[in-house]
Specification:
- By secondary structure, the protein is α/β, with parallel strands linked by helices.
- It folds into 2 domains: 30 residues, no CATH class; 224 residues, Rossmann fold.
- It has 12 helices and 7 strands.
- It has a 7-stranded parallel β-sheet, with helices on both faces.
- The protein is globular, with a radius of gyration of 22 Å.
């Protein structure tokens, strides 16, 4: 009996573009005569994966430099949190017990959205006091809804540039409307997206979130623990959530992390506390 091992364990670029096997053969002169850089089927081949990696690394880097973006604060968090006003509207419209339960939870969690929005505003207000762009810190997120939208919104409403690193998903995630024109990017590869989260990051701010937020947070913690990147403040907003979700004390008891590793992490509850840690770390005026 032949083993039914998969050819690959990820969504390939050919699947993403909905290209069929016959599209990749380029058997006709019309197909083979295309410029390589203009041939979508050729660029989608397995052999050109390294080129696609390079392009996803290069494109945002060039455009961010052209916009004078040198330093960012990367904000993670749930896509599901909504503003207090929107949560109150849903509560008023809820009819069934299930809808009422979901609406109450949305209201309870909306303070995270509002704190992220305040934090974005505080960063933007600092930037207005800086004439040198090299001293500015810009809000960078995954570009989607929830906490990402809230942090971008706070900065955008205060006239600052905001950056979004979006990702192609089975249920496509649209960029939120609070991203600066020309600074909203789309990735196919999570690895390259996460590289860009870190390349210019001078602080990581993580609000409560799901698998994606945990993935991004632990990537950062690992990079810092292994000295792959310089130390920078990692701030977890909502201490109760984080300590209930991740038993750091148990990890120390088992010896799988060191007590010194916990010095990488700061817990806060408000936008003001979060911004104060960053101000003190970099001695910002």
């Amino acid at each position: 009996m032949s083993p039914k091992l998969p050819v690959n364990n990820s969504q390939t670029i050919t699947e993403f573009f909905n290209l069929h096997k016959e599209d990749l053969h380029e058997a006709t002169t019309d197909e083979s005569y295309k410029f390589a850089f203009a041939d979508e089927a050729f660029l989608a081949r397995k052999e050109t994966m390294g080129i696609r990696f390079e392009l996803e690394l290069l494109k945002p880097d060039i455009l961010l430099r052209e916009h004078g973006i040198e330093h960012t604060i990367t904000v993670f968090g749930s896509t599901r949190f909504i503003s207090h006003d929107e949560a109150e509207k849903r509560a008023a419209q809820a009819k069934t017990p299930e809808e009422q339960f979901e609406a109450k939870r949305a209201v309870d969690n909306s303070h995270f959205y509002e704190e992220a929005r305040k934090f974005g505003a505080l960063v933007a207000q600092y930037n207005t006091s800086q004439s040198n762009s090299n001293n500015k810190l810009h809000i960078c997120t995954g570009g989607g809804p929830g906490i990402m939208e809230a942090a971008s919104r706070g900065a955008f409403e205060n006239g600052d540039q905001t950056i979004g690193f979006n990702i192609s998903l089975p249920r496509e995630q649209k960029p939120n409307p609070y991203l600066t024109e020309g600074l909203s990017f789309r990735f196919h590869y999570f690895a390259l997206r996460k590289m860009h989260f870190m390349l210019r990051a001078r602080a990581i701010v993580a609000f409560p979130g799901g698998f994606g937020s945990f993935d991004e947070l632990f990537e950062v913690l690992t990079l810092m623990q292994t000295h792959k990147v310089a130390q920078l403040p990692i701030i977890l907003v909502g201490k109760t959530f984080w300590e209930n979700s991740i038993n750091f004390n148990l990890m120390m008891e088992y010896g799988v992390i060191e007590r010194t590793d916990m010095k990488l992490i700061h817990f806060t509850e408000t936008a003001e506390e979060t911004w104060q840690i960053i101000q003190q770390w970099y001695q910002l005026a």
